[in-house]
Design brief:
It is a single chain. The chain has 385 residues and is α+β, with helices and mostly antiparallel strands. The chain folds into two domains: 190 residues, Jelly Rolls (Sandwich), CATH 2.60.120; 118 residues, Homeodomain-like (Arc Repressor Mutant, subunit A, Orthogonal Bundle), CATH 1.10.10.60. The chain is built from 15 helices and twelve strands. The strands form two sheets. Strands 1-3-4-11-6-9-12 form a seven-stranded antiparallel sheet, sandwiched between helices. The protein has a five-stranded antiparallel sheet with strand order 2-5-10-7-8. A hairpin with a 2-residue loop joins strand 7 and strand 8. The protein is globular, with a radius of gyration of 26 Å.
Length: 385
């Protein structure tokens, strides 16, 4: 508190200090000129949202439209006492980040079921994270019910049957393909239908909200790093929330069993369509149907082996010769491996190894944009392919 005396030199000295610091900062950290900033071309936004709404439909048609829209994922039903004439105002906006779908969704109360019959026919076995911002949901897997509310993350696998109900809700959903998290599959399956909580979940929620605000400005170069960051954060949250009970293998979808078998035998010479069919107890026709969105089961295996080769070459501690890595990936000729690798990632094997050695890792450049279809179901089916 000041007494109005003339003892003001310390204050006078402090008033001069910022001016001197400002002068020094300008000399040490010169600002980029407007001309320099303008000369650097800005990368165009990479994402175009897929929007769906029932608001323009007649009330009696709204729920039917929503049910058809969600049919590739779940079967939905109205709550008791509700009729089609009551209307069903639902909004959904989806963003496809290559190996991640981010979905913003507002829906009225309803029930949902992903049945065993649906799993037998569905190629979808993604991991699924739901962050509720409003409303409550109750989901049952293997007779265990998980209740989620505002600020909670619910984590589950689409490779297992489940059913549940939700009140009117506002949520953001993350869909990640099985392969993106295959290295942590055991931990994740043990946490199926868990509610993620704690400090790590709060950090993930803050990160997801930040990403959500930037979706319409993200560039293609930023997407792989962003997806990997979210993946790592999800794994960290799930690892801290693993329950003592686990989902049973008998309830696992055919697609998830196929993925598990392929990843467990990725480098085996005996990994063939016939061997996979015998393991799963299905026909070759059914196997090809399951992997149709991946261009066939052999193409899927080839891509997984190339991804493993990319990981080896990106590891600065891995000293295996490129020829040995190529052979493990199923290529007898180095030229064929280089051609396939370069087409898949946009860089040659030598370029990836050189960048890793220099500790300047590069992100894969995706091939020319593939058609993802025009519906939410199409995007789910092609996620990660």
């Amino acid at each position: 508190m000041s007494d109005g005396s003339t003892e003001s030199k310390p204050g006078h000295h402090l008033a001069e200090t910022p001016a001197k610091q400002s002068h020094l900062e300008r000399r040490r950290w010169p600002r980029q000129s407007d001309t320099q900033a303008a000369s650097r071309p800005a990368a165009p936004p990479a994402l175009k949202p897929l929007c769906f709404s029932t608001r323009e439909l007649a009330p009696a048609e709204q729920f039917l439209a929503w049910r058809a829209h969600m049919a590739p994922l779940v079967e939905v039903t109205l709550p008791d006492g509700k009729s089609l004439d009551d209307g069903f105002l639902a909004d959904q906006t989806a963003w496809h980040l290559g190996n991640l779908l981010i979905v913003q969704q507002r829906v009225p109360a309803h029930s949902y079921t992903r049945s065993r019959a649906m799993l037998r026919l569905s190629p979808i076995d993604h991991w699924y994270v739901e962050l509720l911002r409003g409303g409550r949901a109750w989901t049952e897997v293997d007779r265990r019910v998980a209740e989620s509310g505002p600020g909670n993350f619910a984590f589950r696998s689409l490779g297992y049957p489940y059913r549940g109900r939700t009140t009117e809700s506002d949520a953001i959903l993350l869909f990640m393909p099985y392969d993106l998290l295959a290295d942590n599959a055991g931990i994740l399956e043990a946490a199926n239908n868990s509610i993620l909580s704690g400090n790590l979940a709060k950090l993930l929620a803050n990160h997801v909200h930040g990403v959500e605000e930037s979706l319409d400005n993200l560039t293609a170069e930023e997407l792989p790093r962003l997806v990997h960051t979210i993946r790592d954060m999800v794994v960290a949250c799930v690892s801290a929330s693993v329950p003592s009970t686990t989902a049973t293998l008998s309830n696992m979808s055919v697609m998830e069993r196929a993925h598990r078998y392929i990843h467990s035998n990725l480098y085996s010479d005996d990994l063939t369509p016939d061997a996979i069919c015998r393991e799963l107890g299905i026909s070759r026709t059914r196997l090809y149907q399951l992997f149709g969105a991946s261009g066939g089961v052999l193409n899927y295996i080839r891509k997984r082996r190339l991804l493993a080769a990319y990981a080896d070459l990106s590891d600065p501690t891995n000293n295996k010769p490129i020829s040995e890595i190529a052979e493990a990936a199923g290529f007898d000729l180095a030229a064929n491996f280089t051609r396939a690798f370069s087409h898949e990632f946009g860089f040659s094997p030598r370029e990836i190894r050189k960048a890793a050695t220099a500790e300047r890792p590069v992100s894969p450049v995706a091939p020319l944009e593939r058609s993802r279809g025009e519906t939410f179901g199409d995007w789910l089916n092609t996620l990660g392919n």
